[in-house]
Amino acid sequence: MTSLAILVPIALVMGLCSLGTFFWALRGGQFEDLDGAANRILFDDEAP
Amino acid sequence: MTAVATAVSQVLNETVLIVPGMHCAGCMAKVERGLAQVPGVVGARVNLSARQVRVTHYPAVTIPELTGALEALGFASQPRLGETQAAPSAVKPLLAPLAVAGFASMNVMLMSVSIWSGAEGATRELFHWISALIGVPATAYAGRPFFRSAWSALRKGRTNMDVPISIGITLATALSLYETVTGGRTAWFDGTLMLLLFLLAGRALDAAMRDRARAGVEALLHQAASGTMVVTVDGTLNWVAAPDLVSGMCMRVAAGERLAADGEIVSGKTALDQSLLTGESAPVPAQVGTAVHAGTLNLDAPIDVCVTATGRDTSLAEIARLMEAAGQSRSAYVRIADRASRYYAPAVHTLALASFLGWMLAGASFYQSIVIAIAVLIITCPCAIGLAVPVAQVVACGALMRKGIMVKDGSALERLARIDRAVIDKTGSLTLGQPTPDATALAALSPEQAAVALGLASYSRHPLSRALSRALAEADVQAAVLEDASEQPGRGVHARWNGRIVALRRPDVAGAVAVALDMEGEPVRLITFVDRLRPDAVQALAHLKSQGIASSILSGDNAAAVAQIARATGLTGQSSASPRDKTEAIARLQGAGHHVLMIGDGLNDGPALAAADASIAPGTASDVGRQAADIVFLGDSLMALPCAVDTARRTMQVVRQNFLLAIGYNVLAVPLAILGYVTPLIAAVAMATSSILVIANSLRLVRAAR
Questions:
Q1: Which residues are B196's β-sheet partners?
Q2: Active-site residue among B190, B211, B425, B438?
Q3: From the list B28, B126, B130, which residue is nearest A36 (CB)?
Q4: Cross-chain CB nearest to B107 (options A11, A41, A44)
Q5: Above 0.90 for ipTM, yes or no?
Q6: Residues contacting residue B234 through CB under 8 Å, at least 6 positions apart
Q7: Which tens digits make up the pLDDT trace of B142-179?
């Protein structure tokens, strides 16, 4: 029972963190151009 | 960084250019760096999915400067018309609910697994409370798309797929909350959340498909003349965007350009290609006083045109009105999922109500009866049915897209699968829509003549010259070295070759589309041009016939030109059809009980494309054609037609199988639910397996478009 009191909150907090990260990425426009993002890493020198 | 950008944006302009030619990292880098080097440009950012580049620049930079810079890099581009904001995406509003449903269902499932494995007493109560804490707000948030749609349907006195979903979810959540508060044994939070997750995934897939196709089609759109050079009172030339043109302005239209507005020629003499408007392939001579229409291609010489009508007042407006009227019949089409739910929803609700009443009559308590009724609702919730259609269509559309066939929305595949009659426009659809030099005329040229012809043609931007130089270059002809070459608008190219005067000019006899090769001391050679059939057009039509689809030609071109193509393809044809004639012809066929597929490209085909049950346009079609068509195919081959029809039919076959799978699972599970044996565990397992079955079955379509 004591282990549950620790593990359950940890699991929930970790899940909430990833959910928060996803929302942050969504707001930041990271899902606007999926094809472009895939190709941008192929640029030779630093991006402008 | 962000703060700086917002501070500066006060004095900066933003222009969105559409660059259809970008398709790799190299192109992106070239476009971004090339634009950044233009003086006055602050930054450029490519969106590859939408084939667009957003340029931030000082107001002094004009659009032609930007398009010019891109042209120097080898990219054709057009400023995007209207708003600079991207069109609202269909999938974006679904992503956040999907993420919430995923997070919540995974965590609640964790609790449920412990309960199923035998958690008792205080632990179970604690887990139920945590589940409720996560489940209730998550259901309220992630369920909004369904609640909203169900509510709007109910308000109009109708029912759709979302009504049983919403009722089931709401009742199950309420019951689970009651169980939690009273310390009961079973809560259904995991079931409702999983249901939401699967259904949202189906919706998101459907929306993602529409977004993708629209991005592809939008990249092709807006390629028409979106502006023109205007001669001002003091004689200088200014570039004016199409929406800013007003009556009385004088446009200067160079040879090879399209008119941006209706008008009347005030100076110059030329030939016009109106095939986009009328389907008529032969050039029409035009001189001072001739009325000309937007979308017409100027062939020969520069002309000055006084604008008489713009935008809404142009002759295109008539076509737009016809299209609006024609499109109404298609919007009456009810998608297969909604048709299924018409029968499904009442059946499910009757069943739930009947089991509630049955158990009450059999002497069960009110609480027991309601638990069983809700179990029936949950088990029949159209989870797999919600996935049955979108997953199959997404997979099929992906397969078609890899073949260069872009489907604008899922219902297009459903409508295309029912087609039993095809009507094909001639110019630009059955043929390539570009004049190409007649092979026999080219073969009759001596090597010397061919070399001189290529040399002369390369000096001109006239469409016929460009077609000639392309054909000769393909035949491995080396261009002769010419001296003093000059092009005189309307009179052709003149030059000296080995001391002899040579010319590529307009033929002396009018009528046929041709150029004359005039070499001093030799008889004049006439090179005629024909509009070639698309490669494998005959094969594609034969394929369509074997699929049980009869085809015929419906063209605005003259009878002689249609007869020639009709002979070559073995089809019957109707010629000189106006846009109204075309829609009427389609309405007649529909009246005779046919489901009609229209294939067309021109402005004049727009109303017919909108009126037909399904429509396909080539990627080279006019804006109107591409906008009105359900499906746009890239490339020259007409084999896209049988391929699309075949894929659509196989997709519908898979959709029907999916329905059978989903309903079959219900037939097995519903008796258990009615008898009161269904626990949350059984519901969860059944739901997941039927969904996975449906998805796996749909994935068979990956190679559907062979």
A1: none
A2: B425
A3: B28
A4: A11
A5: no
A6: none
A7: 999 889 988 988 888 877 778 878 888 898 899 899 98
